[in-house]
User: Which sequence fits this backbone?
């Protein structure tokens, strides 16, 4: 099931004295437990490792003393040896002779020194920053999470998977700093799941910068191509006392993360309901096994509305299908402003299903339906039917076989996957998802009614203007992106 764990690693070659050749011996339970405890994709998946080695990433270790953190840290140091640093409050208590002398009165100072060391590493753009503390409570993690956000680091929370990580007696025996049993028991009582605000697929800083530049370039191109689009957005810009060039910008967001992401599952603030959401979502074993893994995808187009500038995403990787937790059929919010109302579009419709059958153009370069077998139980558990699979690239209505519709935003599974590249003032980034579903419905209605649409076609793009400040840019050559699946913690 997991492409970074090959069956061969479950076996060992042993020589046989009775016959020539090689026999295969199954590893015993203890060896399997050890292998499982080290099966994080950022330790075992070569594709993930290669990507993270050139990505600014903060590994936030989390676990009780003796749970196996040091083993994981040592492996991380070997894998990401070209550019790494280990920040640990324990280092403050190690003297010049390498002797550990703990002083409870200095624990606050030790953590301040550790936090400053982490910030200095962020300023130096060190690729792998390893925070080697217990990080039991959120308030212990928050200073590092904030620094990661400020400096454009992807955060991967790393917890040991050892079978004794919650056993106080074993932890007391195994920890190297002689932490007493009562202290370990007290820390265990404080240990709760670290609930993220959302799970997402994160681009690194370099790719985020490139995608944002592409989005703004296509936005400017659309303004020049469609004079009415520019007039529509200039009218809104004047109302907001901002230039049309700055109308849809990341700088208008209340929170301005340095890196782009696609939300896979929104959890929300730490409430009973959000904790239940987290528990139910995390019950999918693929969620924990895919944390920290690379998930390649594509940007297939951009959407422009009076409120948001979004990048339309495609993920052919079935790992993403299995962890997708967003509602693709969520209705867009009704717009209260008169300049965004469209008489030709019923914004209150809750039906986001396709209105007619489609089939793929055989010349399509990208699709998620290649080799898809609806009789396969594993596939069926992730995607309910072929109609739920996201079809992209050139899609042709069956009754208009000669006409290519370029219906990139289309209904179905993962159809809402997007990046927020910019928003208008006072608009939430969450609006991009609503606008994406609105544009899908709007485009489908225009095609279904055979409504003439202003269009531009050049070597790189096909652009369509739908009126009232709405435009879609379709890319003839999708932009490949590499994302990392992990959580975002507020």
Assistant:
């Amino acid at each position: 099931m997991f492409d970074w764990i090959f069956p061969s690693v479950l076996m060992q070659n042993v020589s046989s004295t009775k016959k020539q050749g090689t026999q295969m011996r199954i590893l015993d339970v203890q060896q399997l437990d050890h292998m499982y405890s080290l099966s994080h994709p950022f330790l075992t998946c070569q594709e993930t490792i290669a990507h993270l080695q050139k990505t600014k990433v903060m590994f936030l270790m989390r676990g009780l003393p003796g749970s196996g953190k040091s083993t994981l840290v040592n492996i991380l140091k070997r894998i990401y040896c070209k550019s790494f640093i280990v920040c640990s409050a324990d280092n403050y208590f190690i003297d010049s002779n390498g002797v550990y002398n703990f002083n409870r009165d200095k624990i606050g100072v030790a953590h301040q020194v550790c936090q400053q060391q982490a910030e200095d590493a962020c300023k130096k753009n060190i690729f792998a920053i390893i925070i080697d503390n217990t990080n039991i409570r959120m308030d212990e993690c928050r200073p590092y999470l904030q620094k990661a956000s400020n400096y454009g680091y992807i955060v991967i929370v790393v917890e040991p998977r050892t079978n004794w990580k919650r056993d106080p007696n074993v932890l007391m025996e195994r920890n190297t700093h002689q932490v007493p049993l009562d202290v370990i028991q007290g820390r265990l009582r404080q240990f709760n799941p670290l609930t993220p605000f959302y799970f997402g697929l994160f681009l690194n800083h370099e790719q985020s910068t490139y995608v944002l530049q592409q989005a703004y370039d296509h936005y400017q191109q659309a303004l020049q191509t469609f004079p009415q689009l520019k007039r529509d957005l200039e009218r809104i810009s004047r109302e907001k006392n901002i230039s049309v060039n700055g109308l849809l910008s990341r700088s208008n967001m209340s929170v301005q993360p340095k890196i782009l992401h696609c939300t896979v599952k929104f959890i929300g603030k730490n409430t009973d309901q959000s904790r239940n959401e987290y528990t139910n979502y995390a019950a999918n074993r693929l969620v924990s096994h895919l944390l920290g893994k690379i998930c390649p995808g594509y940007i297939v187009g951009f959407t422009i509305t009076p409120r948001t500038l979004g990048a339309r995403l495609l993920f052919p990787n079935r790992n993403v299908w299995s962890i997708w937790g967003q509602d693709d059929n969520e209705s867009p919010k009704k717009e209260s402003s008169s300049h965004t109302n469209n008489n030709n579009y019923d914004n209150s419709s809750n039906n986001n299903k396709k209105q007619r059958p489609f089939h793929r153009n055989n010349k399509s370069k990208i699709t998620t339906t290649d080799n898809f077998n609806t009789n396969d139980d594993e596939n069926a558990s992730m995607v309910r039917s072929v109609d739920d699979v996201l079809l992209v690239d050139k899609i042709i209505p069956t009754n208009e076989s000669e006409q290519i519709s370029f219906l990139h935003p289309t209904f179905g599974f993962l159809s809402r996957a997007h990046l927020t590249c910019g928003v208008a003032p006072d608009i939430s980034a969450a609006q991009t998802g609503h606008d994406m579903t609105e544009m899908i419905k709007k485009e489908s209605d225009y095609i279904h009614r055979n409504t003439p649409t202003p269009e531009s076609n050049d070597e790189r793009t096909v652009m369509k203007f739908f009126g009232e400040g709405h435009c879609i840019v379709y890319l003839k050559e999708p932009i490949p992106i590499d994302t990392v699946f992990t959580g975002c913690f507020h």
Summary: Confidence is low (pLDDT under 50) at residues 1-22, 335-409.
